[in-house]
Amino acid sequence: MADKLSTLFREEEVNKRIAELGAEITKEYAGKELLLICILKGAAPFACELAKRIDLPVQLEFMRCSSYGNETESSGVVKISLDLEQPIRDKHVLVVEDIIDTGRTMNYLLEILKQRGPATIKLCALLDKPDRRVVDVDIDYTGFVIPDEFVVGYGLDYAQKYRNLPYIGVVEPEE
Ligand code: IMP
Ligand code: MG
User: Among residues 149, 147, 151, 128, which one has the least CA distance to residue 139?
Assistant: First the structure.
């Protein structure tokens, strides 16, 4: 049976917010080159839209980490299943993630990336679900802060579905 979805942020709202983030990042990194690290798969639509809104020399790299857990919660045991194609030493790195939930995945990943000696490293997340936080994560650029609801669309999935929705929606619990 099809899941019931309700819209949380319309496509226009999401794109407008990403354009604002892009403008802010452009200003703060003026005169520098930026290396965006897109965390697959969820952050791909966000990272691509964001990259288009940053008016600086930008490189785009991809990383994939699987965090063992069930469908809706990560365990904190993170495995890098796709790594970067280049060293990040002395680069200005901006990690782009879809959502920070418990914070476990990003807390672990940022530690690993910091050990590789970037000049600076910051985090940009499309969504922040602070009510669910288990470990502290500093988010430098946040798209939207959301309540504790399971969201899909704009890259985010529910059992690998809905990543292609152009808006952000909430999956309604089944009756
Ligand atoms: P964390 O380690 O708990 O912060 O988990 C972050 C990861 O869990 C994200 O990259 C998503 O893949 C997934 N996730 C957490 N909340 C949601 C949600 O509401 N919808 C879809 N995926 C989610
Ligand atoms: Mg993810």
Answer: 128
